[in-house]
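the four lines:
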Amino acid sequence: MSSSYGTNLRVTVFGQSHSEAIGVTVEGLPAGHAIDLAALQRFMDRRAPGRNAYSTPRKEADVPQFLSGIKDGVLCGAPLTAVIYNTNTRSGDYAELATTPRPGHADYTAYVKYGPSRDYAGGGHFSGRLTAPLCIAGGICLQLLAEKGITVFARIRSIGTVQDDAPFTASVGEKDFPTVSDAAGEAMQAAIAAAKADGDSVGGVVECVVLGAPAGLGDPMFDGMENRIASALFGIPAVKGVEFGDGFAAAALRGSENNDPFIVENGAVATATNHCGGILGGITNGMPLIVRAAFKPTPSIAKEQQSVDLTTLQEKKLTVRGRHDPCIVPRAVPCVEAAVAIAVYDAWLESQKYKEN
Amino acid sequence: MSSSYGTNLRVTVFGQSHSEAIGVTVEGLPAGHAIDLAALQRFMDRRAPGRNAYSTPRKEADVPQFLSGIKDGVLCGAPLTAVIYNTNTRSGDYAELATTPRPGHADYTAYVKYGPSRDYAGGGHFSGRLTAPLCIAGGICLQLLAEKGITVFARIRSIGTVQDDAPFTASVGEKDFPTVSDAAGEAMQAAIAAAKADGDSVGGVVECVVLGAPAGLGDPMFDGMENRIASALFGIPAVKGVEFGDGFAAAALRGSENNDPFIVENGAVATATNHCGGILGGITNGMPLIVRAAFKPTPSIAKEQQSVDLTTLQEKKLTVRGRHDPCIVPRAVPCVEAAVAIAVYDAWLESQKYKEN
Amino acid sequence: MSSSYGTNLRVTVFGQSHSEAIGVTVEGLPAGHAIDLAALQRFMDRRAPGRNAYSTPRKEADVPQFLSGIKDGVLCGAPLTAVIYNTNTRSGDYAELATTPRPGHADYTAYVKYGPSRDYAGGGHFSGRLTAPLCIAGGICLQLLAEKGITVFARIRSIGTVQDDAPFTASVGEKDFPTVSDAAGEAMQAAIAAAKADGDSVGGVVECVVLGAPAGLGDPMFDGMENRIASALFGIPAVKGVEFGDGFAAAALRGSENNDPFIVENGAVATATNHCGGILGGITNGMPLIVRAAFKPTPSIAKEQQSVDLTTLQEKKLTVRGRHDPCIVPRAVPCVEAAVAIAVYDAWLESQKYKEN
Amino acid sequence: MSSSYGTNLRVTVFGQSHSEAIGVTVEGLPAGHAIDLAALQRFMDRRAPGRNAYSTPRKEADVPQFLSGIKDGVLCGAPLTAVIYNTNTRSGDYAELATTPRPGHADYTAYVKYGPSRDYAGGGHFSGRLTAPLCIAGGICLQLLAEKGITVFARIRSIGTVQDDAPFTASVGEKDFPTVSDAAGEAMQAAIAAAKADGDSVGGVVECVVLGAPAGLGDPMFDGMENRIASALFGIPAVKGVEFGDGFAAAALRGSENNDPFIVENGAVATATNHCGGILGGITNGMPLIVRAAFKPTPSIAKEQQSVDLTTLQEKKLTVRGRHDPCIVPRAVPCVEAAVAIAVYDAWLESQKYKEN
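prediction for all of em together
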């Protein structure tokens, strides 16, 4: 364990890259809410591969089929299960990986943990493909949050060494390549193309903002919004760092620079700046919640790499086959939104317990 | 909720800065292990305030008293509860804070969440003082891990803009001001002194390494070592970012740079480099586990700041009284070790379930 | 929530009686164990309807299809998901139940809890059909326990007023109608037939024994074997009481009668009697673990009953249509074994954490 | 684990019979509610020993001291911890028990589970004394439920073979010996006195009713009210059976007898009878919730018993010393109320999550 997330809402992801199907069960969804399945599919499509030059040529329809929990398009209160059948798999690409782990992948650690019976094909349960069910759950949470006026959207903040430091704009979410600065976006795509041309890959940073979240979400210590969101985000393969507000940059500041002065705005308490990313003491303060996740470069690269034969314990060279994204960051954008939406909706449900008190 | 952490081991922290006592209950500790209480106290002392020029002049003995779970110095299998009575409190320092939240603190969000009944004195349950019971639990886990050859120690990696980029050495843990480079350490102390002289504060980064952890700790998706450790670390007040291995820097790399080649060393699989920080797919690979936590500057500063009167909704000036650290990073070092130790020991217990299988 | 059970093993049941499919996800299964799928199917068949005169004439193949978690018949460490597609549903039978709750059923309480969007067809998520996925999970746990020499089997202890008080025998599990006394079994079948002839139903008691469980399973207070097993058993629809050892009868005894004297048997500690049902302080003592579950009579009966129209709040008469068991106790026998096996295996995993200590 | 209960509210009990203190931490209590500490103490006093002829002559003040979570008598939102210091212990009474387990007690199983380091004095963490902190938590929940018009009270239903089958009356809660029928109560006290005179003990059944609970509390499958309440009740030492409504008696009924006809009463849906004990499909239906717990006779009796020396594995005779209740049922009445109140309040919090939806 645990492929489950959440305490008020519980999202359980199952499946392996090449198993019969992948899917998700969500317990705790509120009955009576209509889900816009077409909108959900559009959200899923943002994650789907094969859409452009910088993603893997694999084509995956990634159309969720609902086994339970939804009736005539409306949540019925029972656990919701949706699956995506795996149809376009080429397991032959992975035969060598049974004994030779790919550097940077979970191949070796899965072998240590589960032994030779683990499903190595396509990365098994550790495959980035498992973010598809995460997006089903997250896409539903996004719709439930939107009903309450809470929106979650993300942008590409950097690819390799190319930064997009322009301030967030809501319209970024509608772009195919979601950067605020189009110039930065083009430079990023060039960086991806260059890495691909070299048989290499490149990492990046996704930044996500939550607007409209009421003050008071999140709980002390281990259930603060930072803990909750980080727990969800590190569930996305390749995430190696998570920061809120100014994050690591805040460590270089003085208190007088980093503290956000309280002001009164439209008759309500607000802050003049937002270095804290909308979270104080783990609890939302009503300002935009801002989080960034650092993605390492895709470990599957075309270049020959050094590995080890697990059966002979001899070092050997490995050339990874199969079809891989030179940069998963663009496809990770909706995954970040999904993870954050699940975390925020779980915290929102928690906050409801005490409304009547 | 939740002031509890862990699934195999459950650590529940209670208390407010000025309540009768603060403390911790730990369920799931293994019976039969002797705890070196003197060593635990030395560990606690590293966190205690009042020891030097750059920490608050408050003197807190911070001596845990054990109410249960330990008998004749040996864990007996029952839940362990230890408390520290609050004796040296000056609540008068905090009277104004009943209506005027300190910028950068949880004062405002606690008020929104819990209403006027929340305990604002000294920051209540959100006080950094609550890291003392965390250190009791973590100090015990450190000893249990040490029995298995697993050691956890941390260093100051940066204070403000001063970095200590020297490679980790084990002896850093024995220093009063735990930097590898003494020159960097002196520059950091000067940065703290300068901030203090300005009535200001400064942040920093703590880096922690886990040595001797076997490959195979951690679980997929939401219970990976990154999720587990981040969940614990964000429980320490002021942490705004957490990263593993190269972390955010990995986002700027190419796969060929970031992937750690597998090699055979002393007849075992190892990696030639350690960009991943000892974690692949959420699971330890047997290399040193490396994590960094970014601490924002202490929000309590002597400078006058802008706040709001919560009863009148008028903006007003606030000068925070009380005794505060100009930089909490030095005292946070053992807290980081404690949080990481708890997370690693919880994962270790998890891994034991499948040993016989 | 919660359609999930377990802390070391987590079993999540999903589906509604008439949804696309029902199924189960099991997290925490140990990798490397071969599952005997034919044996699992035989176990499932014991629960399946339509096999004889005293069960519903509905025919349900109830053949699990594995979507994930198992590869070439061997557990691979990833979450296991198995589904059973719903094919033989006659929703028309249930149209009236949209507004008229069946007495003794969850129809009314599901309406109150989830509103008009709840899936009422066939009882929705509250249907006894959901015990099929429970049996998939339980059937796997039975096999894993058997590897360790732990066996779980149940018998019919009573149907209506007919008791089978003969001492447990292992061979009872092989019978089609699992009573120890064949005479009692025949009288029970006659009682079921009589109830059916009257358009009525009848309840009963299932008794389950766990043999071979080592002393030391279970935990104090809220995770004792009684708590764990009761939590699982009350997950089976129609269970209204659970007792261990002498159970309610023990309340009428004196301590000198109820205490089980300790003896030495084959060089090990045992007890001369087993009034406690193998559990002391929530922890197994190495003697047979004995538990009984009381099943109320099937609420769906052919007789006209009094109900209420939920839309008009007028009382009205209801005649339940559809195909229903006059007694679910015989089919509940494997369900009890499944629930107990899951609870015991979860406790066994817990106990492994401290083996090395 | 687990000495913790609850998902929305989390109650963690700590302490051993002879440790420095016993106590409880409750997370998730709503801020802003005043707690009537005098009423809480009166509730605690109902459990306290030494009050009359049929309980142990030990005198324990059992006055909770609040370490955190409450300020000026009002819940402040932080985890509440209350402790009772152990002052009146006579550990010498227990010296022989280090090697000789008392029949019917957890002495042996605690030894198996935790080894020689377990705290055997007074039963350690398995002592009935641990119900005192349970009553602190439960007493607070009773007050919170009362604010919502939900009341919980229990009666003695039987002692030994003496039954009190008179219908429940609210005033039973005010009696020193809470039976409805005074004649039955006198016969029960005579049965206790007779057992005591024989150096023996006797068991009994406590029945608890919850009035005013709204329809809709509880969740499907493993979080039904039956599962929730049984999980809490089996946390009380000596409980060996739990049943709801007609419970085991329902197993002997026909559906036409056991189904509760729906009626309209005061413009609302009700049932004409209440065989189901107010719970259908795990969810409250608005009728009185009825549960019974069977308590085995106190295992500590004055009569000589057969045990085993754990160090030599030789059988030996044991005469239990110390001061023990000949019947714990009267003192268990508030414990049952406490456990039920905690379970109901936890379910109530759960139900609040979906109020706004």
